[in-house]
Amino acid sequence: MSRIGKLPISIPADVKATLEGTVLTFTKGATTQTLDTLGNCGVALDGNTLTFSTNSDQRTDRAFWGTYRALAANIITGLTTGFEKKLEINGVGYRAAVNGNVLNLQLGFSHDINYDIPAGISMAVEKNVISIKGADKQQVGQIAAEIRSFRPPEPYKGKGVKYSDETILRKAGKTSKK
């Protein structure tokens, strides 16, 4: 039995959930997100409680059961509180700035990197920390990974873009001959 899948999800009062066949639609204000279970698991909506069930005892059906329950819980969390990732920029002359809907990065290359901020995502830069906020957990994580990939942290001096909770394993430099 899935420990995650059998937990019911309570839907907050400001989020409206509707079930049409296998498609769940969550709405808060003007923001709408859908989740299509494709018939891989059973879904029941009773007032403000959402429950998922497995179609059979096969391994794939049990996996879908927990997965779709987690995805639905993430959509509700995203609509109510949102998700946030923080990136730190370390290095001399490394800078970031938000200009309208473009993130401008100066990461030691001969050119600036201009990253277009997608709709539904907000970014803020304070000193050397980039905050990425949004309602979609997957999109926030993907954008953070793309920005980090422009200049990943290197192990000798620690220069580059890293997650705020990431630790970099530092290597020792060259040793001199005696």
Structure, described:
The chain is elongated, with a radius of gyration of 21 Å. It folds into 2 domains: 9-80, Outer Surface Protein A, domain 3 (Alpha-Beta Complex); 83-163, Outer Surface Protein A, domain 3 (Alpha-Beta Complex), CATH 3.90.930. It has 2 helices and 13 strands; from the N terminus they run ββββββαββββββαβ. The longest helix is centred in the middle third of the chain and has 22 residues, at 59-80. With 178 residues, the protein is an alpha+beta fold. The chain has a 4-stranded antiparallel β-sheet with strand order 11-12-7-13, covered by helices on one side. A 3-stranded antiparallel β-sheet has the order 1-6-5. Strands 2-3-4 form a 3-stranded antiparallel β-sheet, with helices on one face.
Short description, anyone?
The chain is an alpha+beta fold and 178 residues long. It has 2 helices and 13 strands; from the N terminus they run ββββββαββββββαβ. The protein is elongated, with a radius of gyration of 21 Å.
Largest sheet: 4 strands, antiparallel
> Structural class of the secondary structure composition?
alpha+beta
The CATH C-level name of the largest domain is Alpha Beta
Identify the overall geometry. elongated
